[in-house]
Each structure stands twice: as C-alpha cells, then as structure tokens.
Amino acid sequence: MNILTVNDLSKVFQLHILNNKKLEALKNINFSMAEGEIIGLTGKSGSGKSSLMKCIYRTYLASSGEIIYESAKGSINLVAATDHEMIELRKNEITYCSQFLSVIPRVPAVDVVCENLFRSQNDKNTSREKAKEMLEQLGLPNELWDAYPVTFSGGEQQRINVARAIIAAPRLLLIDEPTASLDPKTKDVVINMLLELKKEGTSIVCISHDEYTLEKLVDRRLHLHLGAIA
Amino acid sequence: MKRTDENWLLKVSNLTKIYGEPDENTIANTGPEVNSNICPNTGSIVACANINFELYPGEVLGIVGESGSGKSTVVKLLYFDMEKSYGEALFSAHQAGEINILDESNQMKRKIRNHLMGMVYQNPRDGLNFRFSSGGNIAEKLIMGGNFNVASIRNRATDLLEKTEVPVLRLDDRPSSFSGGMQQRVQISKAIANNPPLLFLDEVTTGLDVSVQARVLDLIRELQQDLGIAMIVVSHDLSVIRMLTDRTLVMKNGRIVERGLTDQILQDPQHAYAQLLVSSLL
Question: N or C: which end of chain B has fewer CB within 10 A?
Fold first, then answer.
C-alpha cells in the first residue's frame, strides 16, 4: 500500500511586499511512497527539499497538485484538507522534525521530549521515564535532562529534537537533517533508532546531505534539482 | 478530542460591530481593500465585520493584527463587554448551542459569563477589583458562579493561587501591592475559577518583562494541557501566537484577511498584510 502519493505538485511563492515577485519552489513533483519505506530527499540547498516536506506537513500551502495520504482512517488529500483535519493528523499520525529545535522557553529537556506523549498518555511519569531512556541512549548527559534546551549546544539540541519527534512513533515522520551536527557514534544511534521505528511500521521522509546516513538509512533517494525531481 | 462538523464549542457567524449610523454601503466602503474602517459617507466606524469562525473544545485559536484591527473587539463582543451590531454566536455549553448568546437577556448573559467563560485582560485593573484582596477577587467569581460555601471558596482560592504560583500567604492582600506578573496570574486564577470551557486572553503578556512573560505563558500552556480549556488568544505578538495556538486568524481593518494553521500563517502567509506582518517580525 502507498502511504503517500504526490501528483503534479507545485509551489509558487507570491511575495506581495516585493511587487508580487514570484518564486517557483517546486514544479511537477510526482512520486509515491510505500508504507514502511524510508525515502531520502537529496539535492543542493535551495533545491526544494524542505519546501516539499513543508507542503506535505501543510506548513506551506501547495499551489497546485495533490498529496494523497493514506491515513489510519482512510485516504485524504493533504493539499485540500481542512485545518482541523490537519491538526488531527499532526496529533495522531504525522510528525515533522525541523532542522533546528524551536521550543517553548523554560520547559525542561525531558518535558520537551515528552510533549507528544503527554497528549496521548495521561500519565506524565511514565512518559518521562520513556523520554529519559531515549536521552540515555542518545548519550545526552544526565545533568542536562531537567535543564532548559535553549542554552544547549547544536548537537545536544538536535538530539532533543530527534527524540521528541520519534518518541510517540508516528505513522509518517518527516525529518530534516537528523544527523547534521552529530558525532559519528551518536549518528549511528540516531540511524538505528530510525531503523527501529521503521520496523514498527513508521514511514519516513528524510532530508540529508550526509552520504553515510543516506547509505545506512534510506531505501531509495529522490534527488531534487531546481524544484523538480531530477 | 475529535473535531467534527458537529461538536464545535463556539460558532460565530457574521459578527459585526459598527459605531455611529451606518448606511447600506458602509460595510462595502470599508475594510482592507480601502485600508480604512471609517465609512466615507456616514463617518461611522466599523470595528469588526463579517467575522466567522468555529472553535472546538480544548482548541487554542489566535487572533493577530495591528492596533485598531478589531481583534479585541471580537473577544469583547463574545464576552458581552460590548453590544454587537449584528451577528450570531452559538455556544454549545449554553442551551446545546441552539440559541444566539448575543441575543440573550442581560441576566442570562451574566450567568453565561460567570459560569461558562473566563476573560483575562491586558490590564489587570480591568479584570480585578483592586479594593478586594486577591482571595476576595477569586471568591467574587466563585460566588457569581453559584458557590456560597465560605470554606469551599477559600479552599478553591488557595488551590488556584497554588496552581498559578502566587504565594498563598498573600491570599488576603490586595492585588495593588503585587507585581505586574503576579497581578496577571491572580487574574488568570479568577478567570478559570469556575472551570469554564472557554477562556479569552486579550494581550495578556503585553507590557510584562520577558521572564515574567515566559512564566505567564507557561501557566497558560499548562492550564490548556491539564484542563483542556478552549482559548481565544488575542495578541499582536507573533511569538506568543506561535507558542500558544494551533490556528490563527489575521485581522486588518475589522476583517479577517487570512486564516490557517499557525505555522502556515507564520511561514507561508498568503495575504499581503499577513506577509507584511510576518516580515516585520524581529
């Protein structure tokens, strides 16, 4: 079964404040993705990788085309879904993990990681235990668990970011550069966690520039060039 | 909670507030297209017009816009602080959502707002009575909500102050002796005293310094997560909107010019004004 089918997707930014300047970010994107597959999105900066991912998550409104997502409750076109349908899907099925951590100030690292679990599980302590387990695996120093991530280093923030994205095992994970600022050992831990997730049935779209990560992680690659699949 | 077409909490249609004597063209002659909310023929002022939206249980909706865009007017109309000119608001917590709450009698409006709604104003003086103690302010709301047992009122007030991290020792002090952030937290305690399903927050962190602001935001998020209260958050501060809300309405000259998921509004705004607003963010 295909969890995702993208047909003739395009995205044009129309910038009113710059005299209606138009920027074509994506054109004629067509691909489909089997359930449980890991697709690597590659291409130079500015080639449209993040735009494609954000169109799927609906942070960007696609200009034309469709994105058919096979949800647990039937298929839905993410381009035309209502805001509330998207909110439901984001809560229960689709998780987006950006390149940089952006969190509410003054929330401890453990609680940041737990956020998606708090929503589905009422027991905060069980959720926290699971979060600590993950941070342990990712090698985040113990004394940082109850600290605020704003002041963390790039690599530490990235680990928090990855942990919070995968803790609730989404059906579809959109993940942007998960291993970019990690040392080789932690990189392997993250790759293994994502492969573990795949075993449990998660489908993953992953942006990466890192040949090692792509080699070990993805089933196939989509290479973008100037907004089109090359 | 599942959101379907049927289980909305609040359904607002065609909500309009005009000051002065409008004629039949007033609404057509004002709005973002002409960049004015003053009718050129009659001089009447359109504070907001044709506002439509739905809010679901536990949902947090943001309203952004510059001063004068009508964002505060919308919540003040819904909280009965102002009288609407036209429009309808159905509230599922009142009469199964079959009656326009804006047309109810004043007595019924008071009952709805005391039992089923809470409001936190930008200025704590609008929401608190500075002649009463902080406990007295909370008690006032509880009594209006039909609780007349002194012991249970005191217990509830203590609980609320604990939840909002106001030192309980200051239960009997007047809010005038409190810091701005603490006054705001007492105001929030009062607003949620009767466990309302709906809370309005009008520029609640404006004017607070950043550390206090973060604490108030924390509190609001916690209340939302733990109690599942639906909220309408009015703010000109986009970071407040980003942190608290799932969905956002952008207002200009009294109209909604764009609506969408909050991250979409902030990263891919469509309307010219929304683009201007987002690109002005520091």
Answer: C
